[in-house]
Specification:
The complex is a heterodimer of chains A (217) and B (453). Chain A has nine helices and no strands. Chain A is mainly alpha-helical. Chain B is mainly alpha-helical. The chains are: A mainly alpha (217), B mainly alpha (453).
């Protein structure tokens, strides 16, 4: 079995199992914790709609904080939108997903994907520089922050290397790319990348608690 | 003549003329061994965990944006004051002991044990430099309520006997006597009688059946007793069947502020029992921010079932009475700005009530820049005002508030929280500042329409 066959075969399969099982374990471990009944008289009804409201509104920054957070927010948007486009709107990836989902969706032209991929890498590097230089971020950062950054950027970089080749064999670069995705999938449920799903829980519960009080969300 | 403050030694090693910084004070209660303190702190932090709090600790991105919302960080640039850092020890323990992957963290030694030195250092971060104002909770892109986590961490700190001395003693006095300032029922009754005479107002006391139970805060009873008369004038003018009670008059809740859940419950139950006893339909809380949080949003949970009466902050009561025409006020020909108590507005949801009252007063209202829900805290909330060693930091933080107020160029400054008011008074004296904090309720009482007072 060559490297590419290993990467696309058993490595990816094991990573997928860890990704799914780890994610379910983490969500279940949090969602199944005991909940206390809140007996206070609500000012407003606050069910699922309140959760959905905050899941949406917290994507934007409130006016008083705009100036202070503009730079990192802008970078985070570019990083995340780039990642989303590269993962879900790149035609070869869509074909890959179709392989096990059974359906596909329209993608973006390759050149646009490359551009967004490069933008995402640049934004990620700028965010890392910020993490390494800001006194606040230096203090609060830990292994998870740096390793999660690494496993996120690695597939982007290896993916962008495929069209460039740089004298390497297509199969070898593709194998390295797939293995970098394997690493990302294995780490995903354990570290801060879990925010991709936890964001719905944190924003949602805050929305329900504070909307119930009629307080600012 | 210049005098030298002899409390601190000259630092002869320093390259420039300097005094040695004061010795850092870490207060401890009881004689527990260090390991026991750590266990108590962590156990009582995690014991009430639910989905909300667990997801908060698991979901932090370490983006640091909360630092930009915190007055302590904004005014000092000290990264330790980053709100999420204030719960770092507890976050670490959660991941190591409770989280879904705690096993791996322990096995691989990824999160080191919390030490007693850590907890001692965090006493300053959890008490002296956090007013639980919740401004940080509004900037967090994950929507994490960091202020709520600080309150939970305080539960652990209390059980570990690691509370700043003054706050602990205030809370203890409150638990033992029913009032943080040791105001007994007899003293309260005396004060009420004095105010009734002084202001020529009828003040019902210990009525057996009444629709409204009014309560006060010790700060008002002691420092701003005119609030007692103002409350009476308003409730009389509204034609309410109301009373003060000596068996339930203290609205402040230092159990909550210090982190002692039992003391918090004890204080809340006194008010609840008194209201139930007289068959009150409404309990009107005084101008006190944390009292509103303690009873309006936590009271029923202490009671274990829905409260059989409505809980209103006085600003909510005033807004309702003015909007429904129960009371009327004369127009006030002044410009005015309003300081929002964090626990009433941002975290309590009653932001609009004060603005309704101000509208009826007809003043030239000058909203502070980013006032209302995004208002800067006075720096004295969350029990910080009681901690003497925190004074220099609190005063430093207050500069933000001064700038916010001064920009409005308003004639008058009012709020609806006696704790904020004493924080303003203290800082006013410290800075020799022109603005004197007033009371919105007293302004209403002073301007009640003739025949209505």
């Amino acid at each position: 079995m060559d490297l590419l066959a290993f990467a696309k075969g058993p490595a990816l399969q094991v990573a997928a199992y860890i990704f799914v099982a780890g994610t379910i374990w983490r969500i279940v471990g949090i969602v199944l914790l005991k909940e206390k009944v809140d007996y206070s008289e609500p000012r407003k009804s606050a069910g699922l709609m309140a959760a959905l409201k905050v899941i949406y509104t917290r994507s934007f920054t409130a006016s008083p904080f705009k100036r202070a957070t503009l730079y990192p927010k802008m970078l985070a948007y570019v990083q995340h939108l780039g990642l989303f486009a590269v993962i879900f709107l790149f035609v070869p990836h869509i074909m890959f997903f179709k392989g096990f989902l059974g359906f596909d969706w329209p993608g973006l032209p390759n050149n646009i994907i490359y551009l967004l991929g490069v933008a995402s890498v640049v934004a990620s590097i700028a965010l890392l520089v910020r993490r390494l230089t800001s006194p606040v971020l230096k203090l609060i950062s830990n292994f998870d922050d740096y390793f999660s950054w690494f496993v996120t950027v690695l597939p982007l970089v290896t993916g962008l290397m495929i069209p460039v080749r740089m004298g390497l064999r297509y199969e070898d670069i593709l194998a390295v790319h797939v293995l970098s995705v394997v690493l990302l999938m294995i780490w995903f449920p354990f570290g801060k990348l879990g925010h991709a799903f936890l964001v719905f829980v944190t924003r949602g519960t805050t929305g329900m608690v504070f909307e119930r009080r009629g307080a600012k969300t | 003549m210049t005098t030298v403050d002899g409390r601190h030694e000259l630092d002869r090693e320093a390259e420039r003329l300097a005094y040695k910084p004061p010795e850092i004070r870490h207060d401890k209660q009881g004689d527990m061994a260090s390991e026991e303190r750590i266990n108590q702190a962590m156990h009582h932090f995690v014991k009430n965990f639910n989905t909300q709090t667990a997801s908060y600790l698991d979901g932090c991105l370490h983006c640091g944006m909360c630092a930009d919302a915190c007055h302590f960080h904004v005014r000092t640039d000290d990264p330790r004051y980053t709100p999420i850092w204030k719960i770092e020890l507890f976050k670490r323990t959660y991941k190591r002991q409770v989280g879904p992957f705690a096993f791996f963290y322990r096995l691989l030694g990824l999160k080191r044990h919390v030490s007693i030195e850590d907890l001692e250092e965090w006493q300053h971060l959890l008490y002296d430099s956090c007013t639980v104002c919740g401004r940080c909770s509004l900037v967090c892109p994950m929507g994490i309520d960091i202020a709520g986590l600080v309150s939970m961490a305080r539960h652990g700190m209390f059980k570990a006997g690691l509370v700043p001395h003054e706050l602990h003693e205030t809370a203890k006095t409150s638990a033992e006597t029913g009032s943080p300032l040791g105001i007994t029922p007899e003293k309260f009754e005396e004060r009420v009688e004095w105010m009734a005479d002084e202001h020529d107002v009828e003040i019902p006391m210990n009525v057996e059946q009444a629709d409204v139970l009014a309560v006060m805060s010790s700060i008002e009873i002691n420092k701003y007793p005119q609030s007692i008369a103002a409350t009476a004038k308003i409730l009389n003018a509204a034609g309410e069947s109301w009373t003060f009670r000596t068996d339930g008059f203290e609205a402040t809740n230092f159990g909550m502020l210090s982190g002692n859940a039992e003391w918090q419950k004890k204080a809340s139950m006194k008010l609840i029992d008194a209201a139930v006893k007289i068959g009150a339909k409404t309990l009107v809380l005084p101008e006190c921010g944390h009292a509103y949080m303690a009873l309006r949003w936590m009271g029923a949970n202490m009671y274990g079932k829905p409260l059989p009466f409505k809980v209103m902050h006085i600003s909510e009561y005033l807004a309702d009475a003015l909007n429904t025409g129960k009371i009327k006020v004369k127009k006030v020909d002044k410009s005015l700005t309003y300081h929002d108590p964090c626990q009433v507005s941002r975290r309590g949801g009653a932001t609009q009530a004060a603005r309704d009252v101000i509208k009826h007063l007809g003043v030239d209202f000058r909203e502070m820049e980013y006032g209302g829900d995004y208002n800067w805290c006075c720096g004295g909330g969350g029990g910080v005002i009681t901690i003497k060693r925190a004074d220099p930091l609190r005063h430093r933080v207050f500069k933000l508030k001064m700038d916010q107020v001064e920009k409005t160029e308003a004639d008058e400054l009012v709020s609806s929280c006696a704790n904020c008011r004493q924080s303003f008074d203290d800082s006013q004296q410290h800075f020799n500042w022109d603005y004197t904090m007033g009371s919105l309720m007293e302004m209403v009482a002073e301007n009640l329409e003739e025949g209505n007072s």
